[in-house]
Amino acid sequence: MRISIPYHNGFLHAELDEALVEAVITPKTVEPMQSPKALVKTSLENPICSKRLCEKAKGKHKITLITCDHTRAMPSKVTLPLILDELRKGNPEAEITILVATGLHRPTTSEELYNMFGAEIVQTENIIVSDAYDEAAFVDFGRLPSGAPFELHKAAAECDLLISEGFIEPHFFAGYSGGRKSVLPGVCSLNTIKHNHAYTHIADKKAATGVLKGNPLHEDMLTAAKRAKLEFILNVTLDSNKRITAAFSGEFEKAHEAGVSCLIESSRCPLIPADIVITGNGGYPLDQNLYQTAKAASTAALYTKKDGVIILCAACKDGLGGEQFAKVMSLGTPDYILSTLSKLAPEDTILEQWNAQIYAQVLKEHTLILVTDMLDYDLLLKMNITPAASISDALKLARKLKGEDARIVILPDGVAVIPDNA
Asked: Fewer CB atoms near the end CB (10 Å): N or C, the chain?
């Protein structure tokens, strides 16, 4: 049988013996009832537990709209014009700021802004790219339930109306993306994000895909969004082609809950363990660096038997994803990495250690083979990752470890799946 795994802007292919394939795990196909534009427009006109945006905008002087950065596949060319039209329908004179939620990612470039939003919005709207490292750009909002400091970007803190757009997908430690995540980590300071992503939070069993109740990261994120007075969101769900399948707008908690419920219907998949799991990180933009691929690696680990092999396909055209991430990944064995990180207080959290921590948890239990043509193979070996040039080469390596008759599960997009144990 022929398999296809998303890779950068295309796919990697391989031929497998069908008799050895235990299962191919993919979310259910969702056929939208309307065009992407119509889905969003209908949602904005019928918000959940909220007045329409055009009503909320009346009498407001400063309005801030939080949106996603270059690492997310948010279809802003569809959504942003409709949100802006709705706002200006209620208040043509409002000062609107588009605040790009980068969290701790590198700054979004001008070229990326044009790709994300289109020329008209970039050239006519006031756009600020959040920089978590600029201490002067943030306002102190006290402490969160975990005791973490809450420092919010001034553009979000000093507006009369705060809204956001985003998309909902399974998230490997926040449960789900979307909703409250636009605020934290999206537009918070380095100090706040380091506390939220500290070792103890990431190590918590409830900091997992599909889990919200009792998830310490989610609880802080939820409090942050409430304290920031996030009044309205537009969140969408996407298919494997990054096409909008549904839209949810309104009061941020209720709209997000509705979106999560919808996503569960399509994304929850049976948990079928195997000796070898072949997966991808959804292609571009999510496979643009190694840091982001922890998402698929963590999901694949749930499908992999102890001491099994994960074959992860990711282009990583943007490299490793961060200097500190690479340093932590290269500290030593997975056990040593986890032991070292466990001794750090939240305020001493190392930048990007959280994804390295998740990788170490995966590598402690499994062998990971990365299929890529854009990273230094010697560097990957120092990170306890085995490089390969193709899926076929990776399978040869995996079979040397697990045998020629090893059972295989195919997980084409490891980011899109919620295992049914979640």
From this structure: N
